[in-house]
Amino acid sequence: MEFTIKNCRIEISFLFFATLTFSLLCDRSGIAGIGVLAAILHESGHILLMNIFGIPPRKIKMNPFGIDIVEGDRAYPGRLTDALIALAGPTANLLSFFALLAWFSVWPQRYLSFLSAANLGLFLFNILPIEPLDGGQALYSFLCLRFPEAQAAHITEVVSFFALFPLAAAGFLALFRSGYNFTLLLAAGYLAALLLLKKGRYF
């Protein structure tokens, strides 16, 4: 599925659409929809800051493994701008968490607590200094301000692998305690595969 919104090409893979539809239809608790809303807030943070810096996205590709935002043609804005754009998504989730928490304090509704928790979870996950995640991309951009790109890439790679260990340990612990919850462990394995295959956004 493809369409265009204000010169931005939106590409949605069939598998992404099918997976999303299946999750929303089968989840009677509403958790899947809450997760989607938190993800939309996250990506909106990236897109908003890109537009503020005058580099609106040229293409947004959605697949089951994530959402890829392709920047439009423009003069390179610098590593600091790259870092700020990378951090915009987690920041949007963190601000949403605090806003929803304040809202929940005056109007305690179950879904507000779930949505605030989903935003906090996305913030904590994406801020990790692991290369494919926003935190890792921001770390690389900040390091490039001080070191050559090759050295910055090496430092980011080392930090990423060390950051994966507690994530994998938490995944094993969650699986051991629940007997079925392997989501965090699967995420750690996926990130490790991306690191080994050099599928990071910048290097």
TrEMBL record:
Coiled coil: none annotated. Its cofactor is Zn(2+). GO terms for molecular function: metallopeptidase activity. Keywords: Hydrolase, Membrane, Metalloprotease, Protease, Transmembrane, Transmembrane helix, Zinc. The chain crosses the membrane at residues 7-25, 84-105, 111-131, 152-173, 179-197. The keyword Protease applies. GO terms for biological process: proteolysis. It comes from the Bacteria. Belongs to the peptidase M50B family. This is Peptidase M50. It comes from Candidatus Gallacutalibacter pullicola.
